[in-house]
Each structure stands twice: as structure tokens, then as C-alpha cells.
What we know:
Blueprint: H1 2-44, E1 52-54, E2 57-58, H2 64-80, E3 83-88, E4 91-95, E5 101-102, H3 106-113, H4 116-121, H5 123-129, E6 130-133, E7 138-142, H6 144-147, E8 148-149, H7 151-162, E9 171-173, E10 181-183, E11 189-192, H8 194-205, E12 210-214, E13 217-220, H9 226-230, E14 234-242, H10 248-259, E15 264-266, E16 271-273, H11 274-278, E17 289-294, E18 297-302, H12 306-319, E19 323-326, E20 353-355, E21 362-368, E22 372-379, E23 385-396, E24 401-405, E25 421-425, E26 430-441, E27 444-456, E28 461-465
Parallel strand pairs: 1-7, 3-12, 24-28
Antiparallel strand pairs: 1-2, 3-4, 5-8, 6-7, 9-10, 11-13, 14-22, 15-21, 16-20, 17-18, 19-20, 21-22, 23-26, 25-28, 26-27
Amino acid sequence: MKKSKTKALSSKQKTNKLLVLLTIITLGITALILGQFFILDYNTNKVVPDGTVINGFNISGMTKADASTLLTHQFQKRADDFKLQISHKDQNWTFTKDDFVVNSDIHTILEASQQRDHYFENQEDRTTLISQFEKVGSSINVAFNYMFIGLDEKIEEIVKQVEIPPVNSEIKFNPDNKHLFDITDSVNGKRVNINALYSNINEQFLSSNNINVELEFIEEVAPVTKEYNQQLTNKISHFSTNVSDSTGGRKHNVKLALEKFNGFILEPQQQISFNEITGAHTSENGYKPATIIYNGEFTEGIGGGVCQASTTLYNALLLGGVQIDEVHRHSLPVFYVPFALDAMVSEYVADLKFTNTTDYPMFIHTYSDKDSVSVDIYSHNPEYTYKTRSETLDTIEAGGDKVISDVEGKYSDKVLFKGEYFRISYPKKGYEAKSYLQKYLNNELVSEEEIRHEIYQPQKGVVVEGNAIPPEGISPIDTGVKIITDEEE
């Protein structure tokens, strides 16, 4: 029996605790609701300070609720016979009460009357809510576009119809014409003077509901003028290399590769890959067989001469102050540019990449004649001008001849039997060299920076020997070719 009584007491205690908790929660919610009510009642019954005049209506000493009722009624009366006519030349736009709704957010206006200084100093808030503050007291006038919701959007549509955007000057690049650049004139536009429009409307709105305003315009100068574009077409660099001693196929390839860049516009901050622009150096793309350097030797291949095109462009870029991101030397020395100023390219292996780091476009013009190929770059005159300098540090001896047997009979018209020799090429020395980029300001050297340090390997001479065994009684013909040994070299 004791045990049962204890359980009953425990259950009763739990019930009492739950009732107490519910009572506390109920009282809290009630207090919160009452607090909000009292706060709301305090705000709506708060007395408006003396001297408060809104749109000519003196609401001094009123409660906010009464002031709100009065202003709502007066604003609605003004809306009933409100008429706004906007004109421009022979165009007219008329708006009445059917084109808007009256703003019922009166409490914001009442609050603004108490924050006169803020609205007077903050032009953006002032133009969207308050049209004009008196210099003393708390007298304000509500802007018409705050009172009448929907008119702003309609005025925006008018502005779009009548405004004329400026037309920028444009550069037309004609790389194949004698006159490289055609530059159009810029045309100024006109935009509506929005501040004047709203000011005029609000000024009339103070004394009348029948408002008539004429649009005023501000001339908008085109951002890009002809004079500006003319400054972008100055020649800032030139470089040429000689092709007079090149074979027909090689000369063709040099010119074809450079033609890919003729008329190219290098935009500000744009990076370019030579290989991407020229495409694969194949017969399908128009390239012809010519001498190339392959595995450290001069040999025949498709696209020979493309490296002279990349080298010519590379040097023009250097002289134009263009940033070089990737460049490679030839394995063997070439002699159409100074050492350490060549730019070898090879599909999938070596590329010439560069970036226009200036704020101006660069126009590339390439051209050729029977003796040379050239690259000119046009842009805004840079602060500095540039020159390059090459310095040979060492000469590396070639090391004699390499004799190869004419197994395939490729030179059978020159040599036939063993002991008969035909010279393909003489040994060529190698070189170690450096190149420098010099920066000038007003023709005075400002700095010199080392940009390359290269080693070009020497090349053995190549002599072909006949492959056949002379028949009995026949001696090899003496072709007069002397084999150069490493010691002799």
C-alpha cells in the first residue's frame, strides 16, 4: 500500500510542474502581445513635434495616427485631378490618376520629417522621397514620384524613346591596302537631364496639379573619338629578314606563315600562340617541302622556312614592347638574325607565345617582296622605345666530317662506288650567345635587360660515299672531295 501511495504522489507532482510551466509560457506570450500593443499604441499616438508642415499641411501636435489619416486624405484629393504632361518637340505624353496609385506608406513621410538633416544631406534619399526642405523647422514637401507610384516607370520609358546614344569612332584595318586604316568619326548622343526633369515637375507640383514640362537634354560625348583612335594607329615597330637566297619552297613557306598574321589585331591582355594561328605545317595547309633542322641536322621536310617567319615576328614583337611568354632557339645556328634572337617553332614541341600587356590593341601588318619579309606593328605610342643587342660569348669548333653511304642510291648521279665522295655540306661551328633588350626614353638608354642565353651546337660536315663495290679492273673516280677529320678541324 505504501508503494502505491508514493507513485500517486509522484504523478501529482509532475502534473503540478507541467501546469506551472504552461502558466509561465502563457503569461510570457500575453506580456509580449500586450507589449507590442502598447508600443504600437505609443508610436501611433506619439505627438508630432511643433513646426512640422508637410506639403503645406500643418500637422504640429497631432498624433501620428491622425496625421497619417489627414495626409492620406489630402494626397488622395490631389491625385484625383493630377495631370502631368511631358513634351519634346512634337511629341507629348500625358498622365492622369489612371496611370498610377497613391502611396499609402505615410509613416515613412512622418519619420522623414523628424530626420530632416539626413534627407537634406543625402541627395539620393532626398530625390526619391523629399522634393524640397525648408531651411528652418521641419517643413518638407513630398516628391510627386513618391506620392504617385508607377510614374517613375513611365518616365523611364519616355527617356528610352527620346535619348540618342553616342556612336563611337571605329577603326577599320585594311592590311592589303596602301591606306592601312580607315577611322570613322564619332557621333555625340543626347540624354535626358533627369535631375532637371524631376526638379521642374516638383517645383510646379508645389502650387499646381496641372504640370507641364519640356524635356531638357545633356550632350553625351562618345567615349571613343576619332582623335583617340588615330593615336592607336602609330607604327611602333618594324623588322625584316632576308629571303633572297632561299629556295622557292622555303620562300613560299616563310611568306605563307607570315600571311596568317597579316591583319591580325592583338587585343589588350590577349595571349597568342604562333602555332595555333599558322596551323599545322602540312601540305594540306599549303606548305611546301624545304630544308628544315631535324635531330640537329639540316634535312628536307614539309614546312621548312616557317621558323624564319616566327623569328621575324618575334623580333618585331620585341621592338614593340610585347611580352614574350615562350620562345625557343634552333639547335643549330641560323644566320638571318643575330644569335639568341631566333624563334624556332615545331608542332607539339616548340611554340612562340606572346601577350599584349598594354591597354591598347595592336595591329599586325606583314608583307614581302622577292628579297625580304617584314612585320610592322601599329598601336598607341609606348612610353619607351626598344632595341635589341646580341653578343657572341664563345665559338664551338665543328669537329670534321661525317661520311654516310649512299645505300638508297639517292646520289647515284654524283657517286656510285665506294671510294667516290660527294660533299653535301661543310662543317659548321657552334656558338654561345646572349641577347639583350634595351629600353630608351627620349632616345636615351634607360636600361638593358638580358633576355636570352643560348648555345647552338656545331654541325659536322656531311659527305656521301658511293655504296657499290667497284668491278675488277675499275677504280673509283677521284671527285676531289677531301674528308675533314676532327683533328684537322
